[in-house]
Amino acid sequence: MHAASMLDQALIRLDEAARHLDLDPDVLEKLKYPRETTKVRLMIRLDDGSRKSFMAWRCRYDDTRGPTKGGIRFHPDSTIEEVETLAFWMTFKCAVMNLPYGGGKGAVQVDPHTLSKAELERLSRAYVQAFSKIIGPDRDIPAPDVYTNSMVMGWMADEYASIVGEATPAVITGKPIALGGSLGRDDATARGGYYLVRRLARQLGLEPGARVAVQGFGNAGQHIARLLAADGYRIVAVSDSKGAIHCTSGLDVGKLLAAKGQGSLTSLAGSDGISTLPADDLVAVDCELLVPAALEDMIHEDNAASVKARVVLELANGPVTPEADEILAKKNVLVLPDILANAGGVTVSYFEWVQNRQGYYWPIEEVHERLRTMMEREGDAIWALAQDKGITLRSAAYVHALSRLASAIEAHGTQQFFTS
Prior knowledge:
alpha/beta, Rossmann fold, five-stranded mixed sheet, 15 helices, 12 strands, about 45% helix
């Protein structure tokens, strides 16, 4: 996809949702553009003594409902358009879950695999030095994203504390447990999606025993496979960036995790009826539930017609393009949209922020119970809205979020208020 069109594509969803609500023009004017995007060059010294610079961004899209919230990704293909689009999605995701946040996002244009661990630490700290005036526990709260993890967040929180001169754990979520992280953060994205599938299992026709294909076997993909398999769902295919494997009788998740840990899922092929597939063919596997858990635009107009699953659970951000959405809708494939399906991650990030601010930490059962309650509440509301208005679940999720954003924007007074 052409990079500049990425945000325009996302804004299609906004316009579509707006048609189902009686909105004041102020609302769309405020949500059509990011509030602020800061671009910097991070300079770090490499281990060989040379210096290298990296492009970095932080976007605060909208803060009507509270401080902005969103991950930081380290990826060689990151662009300003991608960062702004992801921040737009976060704005809606936080509103879907009724979290007191707006949407933000950050990125560094880097292939982290080319850096040593010490260089990675320098880069992480340089990011916070550059953006220390942008981020803050009441202003903008980062979290991990693609190719960043809890250790990176720990370095960043530490750097922020040294800049402001006091421990401020609430500035960043997704930290190691020992540094103020929340229990349950590691599998939160997948667990939220899992609670949603279980809640709507009857309506979706997805009872245990259903066949599942998982595209992308990183954090979210591994955890959703584990949670669903433990419930009796049959994982029939998984893929990562190196390839895919398929087994009609079902894959052993323990063996998958071990193979992934050693670097290659495809090493399992050839035994127990397991065969390899080209990674691109995973979306066409015969199954009831397809879980895209990798990057954006994985299901597009050229492959959407080959999807055989009845339900798509979007654990990745933006894995289905608007063109693919239309094709899937015509095939009666139900798409559980990213701004609901993968919102478990930001919800448990919110719990972490609350715990940091209280200085009081919850047991894992409490984290799971609160997450389940919130996923079920918003999932039920969006399902009912879709049925009521005869629209897709994605449109319903945007309508649901937009009505909350509109209430907050209109609470400051609209044109009618100021001219009446």
